[in-house]
Design brief:
The complex is a heterotrimer. By secondary structure, chain A is mostly helical. Helix content of chain A is 72%, strand content 3%. Chain A has a two-stranded antiparallel ribbon. Chain A has a two-stranded antiparallel sheet with strand order 3-6. A two-stranded antiparallel ribbon of chain A has the order 4-5. In chain A, strand 1 and strand 2 (158-159) form a beta hairpin. In chain A, helix 4 packs across helix 10, helix 8 packs across helix 10 and helix 11 crosses helix 13 (309-326). Chain B is mainly α. Chain C contains nine helices and eleven strands. In chain C, strand 1 and strand 2 (17-23) form a beta hairpin. Classes of the chains: A mainly alpha, B mainly alpha, C alpha/beta. The A-B interface holds A 69, 119-120, 123-125, 127-129, 131-133, 135-137, 139-140, 143-144, 147, 269-270, 273, 276-277, 280, 308, 310-311, 313-314, 316-318, 320-321, 324-325, 328 and B 36, 83, 86-87, 90-93, 95-97, 99-104, 106-108, 110-111, 213, 216, 219-220, 223-224, 227, 257-258, 261-262, 264-265, 268-269, 272-273, 276.
Chain lengths: 365, 289, 237
């Protein structure tokens, strides 16, 4: 266990020092305390931001760390969201079934990712073509779901409902002995989301700083060379693709329980662009940057949604464009690096950031 | 029997025409600069919107369509100069950047022109043959598709631009050393690709609803055609459209739209697996120029 | 004695181009073999066929008495073959030390890898650059880093494709000494080279490829004084 703990810091993540972790804990404390003195509107909104974080961290894993650009993450989002809806509308929410539904839905998304990923990576599809294939998959899903309006399109008692989407599914509930099930809404959902984000974030940090993570970045840098070092590149690509798919699915289920509602537009082309914007704008090669950027940009979209969500999307497009042209490493990453440079210039004796990181990683047991 | 054959030929011709017209612009840009233009659908949309809007000025339809294509072309040149030019050696970034442009274009159109605008009617009506009814306009489009192919062939083989363009595709450094203004070639070619996309949008505007997201109906088909056809637009795109036309019209007739799309998807996967250079690789040794 | 590497009737066509035309190469364990020949003779193609980058049109590749023709490249690497490509294939964005660690971690535990990392950095003279982005190294250093990654696998057969391309005479000499040392320690090495001084420095047996076939094979002195060899080279030079 201590071994894993040391992997929280490493070459693949920024923010390895004491300052970072202290701030991190402080932020968590603030978040946990927030529902006690903030109104429910704010809590619900912040909870909404957290819903999306899993999908973009998954994309960061896939694109930033392993070099696989997928336009299809929203497909897994939708599969899991609808699956949750179908299961809970059919079987109800007692006995903690909603959590079982969550697990099954995420597993289903992972399974779909496994199948698609297998055909792609073991079928020799690489680079750009992965983007094209996943783009096509997104479109196929969107078109398919949009034409499921008729009553014949139902699984059990859950109608798919075409463009209007599925609604009325129960939120996540925890069965409590001796009393009614606790519904995870409002502040309970908020705390649940915070805990989930922290766990997933820390887990992913450990993953990317481990040997597995080293192979991920090796594949990103030079897949041929990675293969010539004896790594089965396809297997690593597939595993990362499945993890990213599962994370997108997790976002999908949480979105569905947050709003008790899911539509095909969440699986569409425009929706597929959003995680790409968030990861590119923050810095796809770093989990923390992606996390921060996602929360900020979703918050920004919310503010602009008052004017009309289309404006928010135009802005997102521009942010993406500017990021690619001017800050290809991402705004957050570029900012942190610039600050790091400034710090180094004012303290010339300090070792370079990367040297310190290497020293950290090789001296930790 | 004859009527069935004609009906099938019509279906195939219709699919072929759609694929050729929608993919040609993308193929040329990809073949020349290796750029995957994810804003391709939006140039199509631009052509359609301009066509519809200028038709309200009561100009003759062909002129409106020309305006549509030209507008798309000019916007293409501007975009190439501002954005694409900086991303030639950064493939992923050019994909993401063009997607950003696509997002801006669709949402911008949505904001400024609303969720849809009233389109134009399909001209020429229909004719009957052996119990089947065919749209005359779609037959006209088939003729136009062939004319476009011929014109492009002449453009690339017989004009100065064409010679310079082919030289640049083969070996940009060498072309530059021989005095070709490769920057200008890239701009013009991107503009040409955009104009062809706009032309597709213009030509199909009378047959579809003009909504900001209409481009998405064109991109999957275009991408699949380019993947199957390979980097050589002159040699690969038309045969690819031909083959895919058969696959798609067959699948759609038998199983419906979604299966048709899935069929194309499966084709992409198979082709990438078995023929990574596409038909261009089959027809010419280097798969280029 | 089974040769460590044996190709049997290896053929490779690329469309109309017959790149490999029936090659029967046999390399004994512990050899230091040089592969020379004019441009386009098929040397790199042969390496890629041995590694499995693409399958042969016909023919077989045998390693340590085992038919590896059907195996994927990473499996062949696991069996003990390692390659350094012509164009430096390193992880540009990652620090030098991490490049080597990734090569080492596949077969070594964390502690053993760390120790081996120090040894390699010293051997390759890359200690001062250990934290530098690999993409920022000089060309010669990049070549050395990739050689380091290739030997980090502790292979029984090492393939080097023009390891001294772009190197200065001093760097070339150092590379030659390194290759000889690796061979003395038991590694079988096959080197593709154009630099005849380098070949003279390290080779004992030389194979000459021409038009995808083995033209002639023999001890270094014989090859050097062979008039036919000079002729096929002169034709290009």
């Amino acid at each position: 266990m201590g071994n894993w703990f040391s992997l929280l810091n490493g070459p693949q993540t920024m923010g390895n020092g004491r300052g970072f972790w202290v701030s991190f804990c402080a932020v968590i404390l603030i978040l946990v305390a927030l529902p006690l003195f903030a109104d429910s509107y704010l809590i619900n909104n912040i909870g909404f931001f957290f819903v999306w974080v899993f999908m973009s961290m998954g994309l960061s894993l896939l694109w930033g760390y392993t070099g696989i650009l997928s336009f299809g993450q929203t497909a897994f989002f939708g599969v899991a969201g609808y699956a949750y809806g179908v299961i809970t509308l059919n079987f109800g929410s007692s006995y903690g079934l909603t959590f079982a539904a969550l697990l099954v839905a995420v597993a289903l998304a992972a399974l779909v990712a496994l199948i698609i990923g297998y055909f792609m990576f073991y079928g020799g599809i690489r680079d750009v073509f992965v983007g094209i294939v996943t783009l096509s998959i997104t479109l196929v899903f969107e078109t398919f779901m949009a034409q499921t309006a008729g009553p014949e399109w139902a699984i059990g008692s859950a109608r798919l409902n075409g463009f209007n989407g599925m609604s009325g599914m129960p939120p996540l509930t925890i069965p409590w002995p001796g009393q009614e099930d606790i519904a995870l809404e409002g502040q309970y959902l908020f705390w649940f989301l915070v805990a989930l984000v922290v766990c997933v974030y820390l887990g992913l940090r450990i993953l990317v700083n481990s040997r597995f993570g080293n192979v991920m970045v090796a594949i990103r840098e030079n897949p041929n060379r990675a293969e010539m070092l004896g790594y089965d590149v396809r297997r690593y690509q597939l595993i990362v693709f499945v993890i990213a798919g599962a994370l997108a699915g997790l976002s999908g289920v949480l979105y569905t329980t947050w709003g008790t509602y899911i539509t095909p537009s969440t699986m569409g082309l425009t929706a597929a662009a959003l995680p790409i914007v968030w990861t590119a704008a923050g810095g796809r090669k770093d989990l923390t940057a992606t996390l921060v950027a996602t929360i900020f940009l979703v918050w920004l979209s919310q503010i602009l949604a008052v004017k009309g969500s289309q404006y928010a999307l135009i802005l997102m497009g521009f942010i993406l464009l500017v990021a690619v042209m001017l800050a290809p490493e991402g705004f957050v990453v570029t900012l942190v690096k610039k600050i790091g440079l400034l710090a180094r210039r004012s303290a010339p004796k300090a070792t370079s950031v990367s040297e310190r990181k290497l020293a950290d990683s090789s001296s930790s047991s | 029997m004859q009527a069935e054959l004609l009906a099938f030929l019509y279906q195939w011709g219709d699919a072929f025409t759609f694929l050729v017209l929608s993919a040609m612009g993308l193929a040329i840009i990809f073949g020349m600069m290796g750029v995957i233009n994810l804003a391709h659908g939006e140039f199509v949309m631009c052509g359609a919107y301009v066509t519809v809007l200028t038709s309200r000025l009561n100009l003759p339809l062909p002129l409106c369509m020309l305006c549509g294509a030209l507008t798309a072309g000019i916007i293409g040149i501007i975009l190439e100069r501002l954005v694409i030019r900086h991303l030639y050696h950064r493939l992923f970034d050019s994909i993401v950047a063009t997607w950003a442009i696509s997002l801006i274009a669709t949402q911008g159109t949505l904001v400024f022109a609303g969720p849809s605008i009233e389109g134009i009617k399909t001209p020429f009506g229909s004719f009957m043959l052996g119990g089947y009814s065919f749209s005359s306009y779609r037959v006209v489009l088939m003729v136009i598709a062939v004319l476009v192919l011929i014109s492009l062939y002449l453009l690339f083989m017989k004009t100065k631009y064409g010679v310079h363009a082919r030289a640049t595709i083969q070996n940009p450094d060498m072309a530059r050393a021989l005095g070709v203004n490769t920057n200008m070639i890239y701009s013009l070619t991107f503009g040409l690709g955009a104009a062809l996309a706009g032309l597709a949008g213009a030509l199909y505007a009378p047959t579809t609803t003009t909504v900001p997201t209409m481009g998405s109906a064109f991109i999957v088909q275009s991408f699949v055609t380019v993947v199957v056809g390979g980097a050589n637009a002159l040699v690969g795109t038309a045969p690819a459209a031909g083959i895919l036309g058969v696959i798609q019209s067959g699948l759609v007739a038998a199983f419906g739209q979604t299966i048709g799309q899935i069929g194309l998807l499966v084709t992409v996967i198979l082709v990438v697996r078995l023929l990574p250079k596409g038909l261009s690789g089959v027809f010419s040794r280097s798969g280029n120029g | 004695m089974t040769p460590i590497l044996a190709t049997k009737g290896l053929n490779k066509r690329f469309g109309g181009l017959h790149a490999m035309n029936g090659v029967d190469l046999n390399v004994e364990r512990g050899e230091l073999r040089c592969l020379i020949g004019p441009n386009g003779a098929g040397k790199s193609t042969l390496f890629k066929l041995i590694l499995g980058t693409y399958p042969p049109t016909s023919g077989e590749v045998w390693f340590n008495g085992e038919n590896i023709t059907r195996l994927l490249p990473y499996r062949r690497v696991e069996k003990g073959i390692s390659i350094k490509f012509q164009v430096p294939g390193i992880f540009q964005d990652l620090p030098v030390a991490q490049n080597l660690l990734i090569a080492l971690q596949h077969r070594l535990s964390k502690e053993a890898a760390k120790a081996e990392l120090e040894r390699l950095l010293a051997l390759l003279d890359l200690q001062p650059a250990r934290a530098q982005r690999a993409g920022e190294l000089s060309h010669g250093q990049k070549q050395w880093l990739e050689i380091g990654m290739a030997i980090a696998l502790s292979p029984s057969l090492l393939l080097l494709d023009e390891p001294t391309a772009g190197m200065s005479p001093e760097e070339t000499f150092k590379t030659g000494e390194l290759v000889k040392r690796l061979n003395q320690d038991g590694m079988t090495v096959v080197v593709i080279e154009h630099d005849m001084a380098f070949v003279r420095q390290i080779a004992r047996k030389v194979t000459v490829l021409h038009f995808g076939k083995i033209f002639v094979e023999g001890p270094l002195d014989e090859i050097i004084s062979n008039e036919d060899v000079a002729r096929i080279y002169l034709g290009k030079d």
